[in-house]
Amino acid sequence: MRADTSVADAITESGHSPPPPVSALVPGLVWAFYVHSDGTAESLPVDQPMPSSHGGLLWLHFNLADARALLWLTTADLGVPTAARTLLLSKDTYQQLHTVDDCVYGVISDLLRDVGEATEDTGYLRFVMTERILVSGRHHALCAVDATRRALEAGHRIESSAALLETIVEHVADTMDGIADRVAQALDDLEEKVLSDGPTDLRQSLGRLRRTCARLHRQLSGLRIVFHRFEQKHLDDLKPALRLRAGKLAQRLDGLDHTIVEMRERSRLLQEELHLKIEEQGNDNIRVLSVLTALLMPPTLVTGIFGMNTKGLPFTDLETAFLWAASLLVLSSLAAYLIMKRIGIIR
């Protein structure tokens, strides 16, 4: 697309019929949607010129790992501030949300998607939105934007660009909520194993769950702080289509983060209990070794005495000397056992 081509200038009123196309293809698109004025969303082919409409909203989602997409975003006239474009093209991983000249832009975290399934790895969604267009991008496949895409294809209605971003954030929370449910179930299973008398070598599994909780808390903590700060800003000058319900989103994220913190604390307590159990097992093993050592010390002493190469040893002239020596070995061990049982070492 030429540098002087403006997406906003190509907008014409269309209702439910496809709006007129822009004169050139948009490279690096993962998907595109046109949201009509009544809230219905229409999926657009990415290998054709992008249409738009004065009465609707255009969502363009880019693969920022594609150099062609970066070049197009650098040169295209999207009608957004320079700071917004710079953040969109950056690799900044600091979660943030800004408003400048009827434009909202920022970076939010999400979970990476692998073959249709959410992973525990963190990815970042960069976006810039005005009243009529939302441009988003990622370097790796993300869960929340893909869930939003499927929701739009299933008929979910969108009222404004702010509502579209809210939907994405809601799906971020839903994805993390699903991961939290899996972690909670895994913690239940580990707790059952820790409290049972079975094998307790569960440190690797428990450590992995603690790491997951720490990652989710780190993401949610940054995300909810972003929306709390955004809520405190004076947003009366923003157009209604850009006014995010930041308080509602922050409340949802606060509740989810509280659940994650509880699970992190629970995993820590489980790890402490597991360490105590392992320590108890180690003490039992040391106790068994100590008892065996005590039982074998008297026979060792007897064997050492009869092994001395000196004159005057007892039983040297008897034919039954070995039997007497063996009897002394057994009796010495028996005496050590009775003494330890008497004083309570052996129960």
Can you give the mean pLDDT? 82
Level of helix content?
40-55%
SSE string, helices as H and strands as E = EEEHHEEEEHHHHH
Structural class designation: alpha+beta
- CATH topology heading of the domain at 290-343: Methane Monooxygenase Hydroxylase, Chain G, domain 1
Q: Please report the distance between the alpha carbons of the first and last residues.
A: 86 Å
Taking all Cα atoms into account, the compactness measure Rg is 35 Å
**Major sheet characteristics:** 7 strands, mixed
InterPro entries: CorA_cytoplasmic_dom (IPR045861), CorA_TM1_TM2 (IPR045863), MgTranspt_CorA/ZnTranspt_ZntB (IPR002523)
Subcellular location: Cell membrane
Protein name: Cobalt transporter
Keywords: Cell inner membrane, Cell membrane, Ion transport, Membrane, Transmembrane, Transmembrane helix, Transport, Zinc
Task: Tell me what the structure shows.
This protein is α+β, with helices and mostly antiparallel strands and 347 residues long. 51% of the residues lie in helices and 15% in strands. It is built from seven helices and seven strands, in the order βββααββββααααα. The longest helix has 61 residues, at 246-306. The termini are far apart. The model is unreliable at 1-23 (pLDDT under 50). One of its GO terms (molecular function) is magnesium ion binding. Its main location: membrane. One of its GO terms (cellular component) is plasma membrane. InterPro entries: CorA_cytoplasmic_dom, CorA_TM1_TM2, MgTranspt_CorA/ZnTranspt_ZntB.
